[in-house]
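ASSEMBLY PREDICTION REQUEST
Request ID: AP-0331
Submitted by: J.K., bench scientist
Number of chains: two
Total residues: 790
Priority: normal
Notes: Please return the full assembly, not individual chains.
Input sequences:
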Amino acid sequence: MAQTDLGLTPTTKRSNSNEKEIAMSEHTKPKLTRRQMIRLGVAAGALAAASPMLSGCGATSATPTPSGPVDVTFWHVWGATRLPLVEQQIKDFEARTPNIKIKHTLIPSAGMDEKYLTAIAGGDPPDVMMIHGMNHLPTFAAKGVLLALDKYVDKDKIKPNEVWFPAEYNTYVWQKKPYCLPFATGTGFFLLFYNKGHFKDAGLDPAKPPRTWTEAEQYTAKLTVKKGTAIDRVGFDPAQGGAAANYVIREWTFLNNGNIISADGKKIMYNSPEGIDALKWVVGIYENAYGGFDKVQAMVSGAGSAPYREAFQTKKVSMEIDGVWLPLTIKTDAPDVDYGIAVLPYNDKNSKAKQRNIVEGGWGYGITKGSKRPDQAWEWLKWTCMDTGNLEFFKAQLRPSPVIKFKNDPYFVQNSPYWSEILKAIDNSEVSPASPAQSKLNQITKQLVEEALLKKKTPEEAIKWGATESQKALDEWWAQQK
Amino acid sequence: MIEEQAVEVGRQRGPSLTKKEALWGYALISPWIIGFLAFSAIPMLAVLALSLTRYDVFDPPVFVGLSNFVKIFTDDRFFGLTLYNTAYFVALSVPGQIVLALFFALLLNTKIRGKGVYRTLLYLPMIVPAAASSLVWVWLLNPYLGVVRHLLSFVGIEGPLWFQSEVWAKPGIVLLNLWHVGQNMVIFLAGLQAIPEHLYEAAEIDGARWLDRLRNVTLPMLTPTIFYVLVMGLINNFQVFVFAYIMTRGGPLNSTLFYVLRLYQSAFRDFEMGYACALASILFFIILAFTALIFRTARAWVYYEHEG
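STATUS: Completed
Returned structure:
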């Protein structure tokens, strides 16, 4: 009845309005329900769009109940020809330990640091990481990214110095605790590769590579071929085309009885007469044989990850510096190059200098601190770093293993004609202490060598500048650790 | 009467119609707002905040006040150099791109056969990812084995060392950037086609030749487009990174160490996130200042048709 309204509408229109009200409500009801449906749809859509963020935020993987096989995640940079070797390694491992499955991921070596950093920051790193002894180990160990392995080493009664070459194992020791097991040697990074065909052409004995700096200079003069005023063949490229100059220069200092950094990793030591003379000698090779680094720069630097290697493989360089990984790649990339391997020559003008190879870290495998499967990861470490897994991986590459007992495996001796040289390199190896802030130090060393090679600075100026800047960076890093 | 009753109906059944429509609006744009907040706004604020800290990712950030900024302005051997390298690149690249894009757009705006084919070919480099084109160009400009050197030798020119030379590396990257002219060209084409035909007719009647038409009709009418391309070009080219990262890694002798590349190295290679954020904040304000400057001067040279 019309009397029941709340008196909000004027009485004269009451009956009319009520009828109209009812009519209105019946008319508008369907609109509202359709609106409600659309509203629900929008809300559902927004929720669906937002839900990945909500679920991703607090993701913590619950520890799986170990009823089935356990997955161990493993990141590495063994690409191209080495990838099938990794897969074989995994296959062999899973065959003998069926309850552990290795899930490996190949990451590009160029973006390795960034990838690790983002994984660590995001709280989702792999169980096993491939760690570089110089570039990663000090920082990662100091910052608590890796698990200290001393408990595992003791539990399994491993005597490190009987298993691995001391230089290899000690690379991964930080503040007296091991943080990785050595997988790939740090030795054999700098070897002399020479083109035996060129030696014969120049009247040199291909079985007698240069052993001293004087011999290297003489050989370079004989091996270099000029076409008019241009250099057609580079006799010797001691700075790896300037590309990895920051690594090579440290080796040459070592071969001049110099040191790079103090044992506690706090003081730069290459601003010494030995360091300056080493750089002078390297620059001198380019000056004397070719008239300057810029004359051969186009040939030995350039595109690609290792242009100096490509120059050697295309027979434009007679003697280059490269590592133990080359025999495998050169087999597929440039099988027609008749090459020999020798340890690097030392400075015969310095009575205290001898053949002595710097070890600045190879590759080790470490377990991340937050790993939920450290025991299983440890099994993988043992297989790859101490056991047959290691031997097979390096046998296929004719590359030395850090494990002492594999040193004289007949396979190496039979198949690698230069095995004695490689063993010599290992025996003469010394660890150069690792330092944190290594990325900054590398950048500084690279710049100082580039500037010396391109004659922007004299070797003395370059070394002095580099040592000062490096010391500053080191001091800063240590100051921040307090 | 019906309207009054309709409003009364609404009033009795909850929020007003206008308010309901406002809520709808918010609901419909909420996905974009959430995305913007999560991926743009909050990260930007985070960068500004982190620039006041020392943060190496492994340990939580430590507040250090303005010391990052102090270090950048007083004790950073790369700050001046990276600004110079970036400014050099922008000074060559932005005008170069505008002129080249306009040139091709003018050509393509004529009645030629196969216009679509040329347009597609000129636009094609834009589809190639920057990383891929970088790798190709490293080989093209290889001073020993590269195609460009080979072609130059036919004309008897000894090509420079391009990315191995600290003098030629930056021009090499400018050249590579100019190759990506397609996008701006398409924008200019659109701008050209918006110019009313009657203006050209009037000019022709008055006896204007091709160059006069260009100077007095085309360019003034194109100023809004030029304005847009200029602002976007500045913002993008100040942040040049991919080419240097892939091809030269900042070398030789730091000649291609651009500001953003250096920032990246600071963050991901040296693990100095706070410092990198400070660098990023400074770049933000530099680009903002340039953009504001262009906007300010726009009134003098940008002509919009609908204004009197």
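REVIEWER COMMENTS: The first strand of chain A starts at residue 70 and ends at 76.
SIGN-OFF: pending second reviewer
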